[in-house]
Write a structure and sequence with these properties.
Layout lengths: L1 E5 L3 H12 L3 E5 L3 H8 L10 H10 L3 E4 L2 H6 L3 E4 L14 H13 L4 E5 L7 H16 L5 E5 L9 H6 L4 E4 L3 H10 L1 H5 L4 E4 L1 H32 L3 H9 L20 H14 L5 H24 L8 E5 L14 H11 L3 E5 L4 H4 L7 E2 L3 H5 L4 E4 L11 H7 L4 E4 L6 H6 L3 E3 L4
Parallel strand pairs: 1-2, 1-4, 2-3, 4-5, 5-6, 7-8, 9-10, 9-12, 10-11, 12-13, 13-14
Helix pairs in contact: 1-3, 5-6, 10-12, 10-13, 12-13, 13-14
């Protein structure tokens, strides 16, 4: 089976490379000529563990190729995945400009049966719009070509996307005709043989499932951050509370980690989009609205905690920041809490020197006044406080004696709770965590 994936961003590139690993012939198409040329040179423009090796292996095997010629990629494929960006608008709604452009391009190309699959995260009803856009282009060409539209939302976590694709919790397929369902089930057959659950449903349910999943996970994050605030008021430890409730199998331990709030390309965008969509339907999604408010407040609380650690005197002080990406194992700084917090410090006159293993280049345009350092210890040198904003593994075992010597004041704000408070205080640090 030949397929094409239109859009070579995070989702598109991972999807294309993983399908190629199954032995499927895959063409990844993108209008960005520079990106395609970069991929053809064997360079992967995003950081995702294992992705560069996966791409190289399948390009070498002749199963994976890259092109700017989307019409040709569609012509030679039975299945066309739409994996283009769907950024948020200021009101929280989803910008479908790229999805419409690709749909119309498919309609201008279609000359035989295809299955067109939305892989991008899109609001309920988008697949019907895709169908209409394709039909409009076919009508303008006076061509009567048959096609199916389906929804196959992605559930990839940055930093572990390959494992998520190869060993998923489930595959959701939204189809409204048997032929498309049979083709997509065959496409995912390698996972079916590994007993991966297949959720075959209608298109609207498939589209909504991605938003519902991300909103629920975001709710867990905001919930434990609210618990953390309460813990600070009563002298409890949020780590202990999270463990106690997380061991309940009805709740589970994942995403019960107090911190500066969620970020990235999915949770902030998808919660706002779901809230906006619900309001459009005439019924506010009160839980999700609260989740968004709590997340915004948590960033402000973290900034306040840093200001308190500086005794309220920020202007002229130097802050060392470890971690810029929204989570470890990625260079993604989209909606990263670190950038908001750093911006707040800079506005108050602080000097900021930072280190991140992967995200400094991506972060630099957003915080140009930050001094980017070669390592964690370079960031600590001469700083009045050390702030940990991303829980990269290499920050978990810092040489604390060296850190203490480098800091002007032995003060640490651990916004990810990667250290235990008592040993840190015994080592002579003025230590502040979240909810402890």
């Amino acid at each position: 089976m030949n397929i094409c994936v239109i859009g070579t961003g995070y989702v598109g590139l991972v999807t294309g490379a993983c399908f190629a690993e199954f032995g499927i012939q895959v063409i990844c198409a993108d209008k960005d000529a520079d990106k395609i040329e970069t991929l053809r040179r064997g360079e992967v423009p995003i950081y995702e563990p294992g992705l560069d090796e996966l791409v190289a292996r399948n390009v070498h095997a002749g199963r994976l190729s890259f092109t700017t010629d989307t019409p040709e990629a569609v012509r030679v494929s039975l299945v066309a995945f739409i994996a283009v960006p769907t950024p948020p608008r200021p009101d929280g709604s989803t910008d479908l400009t790229a999805v419409e452009a690709v749909s119309r391009e498919i309609g201008q190309t279609l000359d035989g049966y295809k299955v067109v699959v939305t892989k991008s995260t899109v609001p309920v009803g988008t697949s019907e719009k895709v169908r209409d856009w394709i039909r409009q282009e076919l009508a303008s060409r006076k061509v009567d070509a048959r096609f199916s539209v389906a929804s196959n939302p992605e559930f990839l976590r940055e930093g572990s996307a390959i494992g998520d694709f190869m060993r998923p919790d489930r595959v959701v397929l939204g189809c409204d005709d048997e032929q498309a369902a049979a083709i997509l089930e065959d496409l995912y057959r390698p996972l079916y043989l590994n007993e991966t659950p297949m959720v075959l449903t209608d298109i609207a349910s498939a589209e909504l499932s991605k938003y519902a999943a991300n909103a629920f996970l975001a709710t867990k994050v905001s919930f434990i951050n609210e618990v953390a605030t309460l813990c600070e008021s009563v002298g409890a430890d949020v780590q202990a509370v999270a463990r106690a409730i997380g061991l309940d199998r009805r709740i589970g331990s994942k995403f019960l980690h107090a911190g500066p709030g969620f970020g990235g390309s999915c949770f902030p965008k998808d919660t706002r989009a779901l809230a906006h969509f619900a309001r459009e339907q005439g019924s506010a999604f009160e839980v999700v609205e609260a989740v968004i408010r709590v997340n915004e407040a948590q960033r402000a609380r973290t900034l306040d905690k840093i200001i308190e650690a500086l005794d309220g005197e920020v202007e002229g002080r130097t802050v060392a920041v470890l971690g810029l990406s929204f989570k470890p194992e990625t260079d993604d700084v989209r909606d990263a809490p670190a950038l908001d917090i750093i911006s707040g410090l800079l506005k108050r006159g602080a000097r900021v020197q930072a280190f991140d293993p992967q995200a400094m280049e991506a972060a630099a345009p957003f915080v140009p006044d930050v001094a980017m350092c070669q390592d964690a210890y370079g960031a600590c040198k001469g700083a009045d406080v050390l702030v940990i904003l991303t829980e990269w593994n290499q920050f978990r075992m810092l040489d604390l004696g060296r850190v203490k010597e480098l800091l002007r004041r032995p003060v640490i704000v651990d916004a990810r709770n990667i250290y235990d408070p008592e040993p840190m205080r015994a080592a002579g640090f003025k230590y502040r965590g979240i909810g402890r």
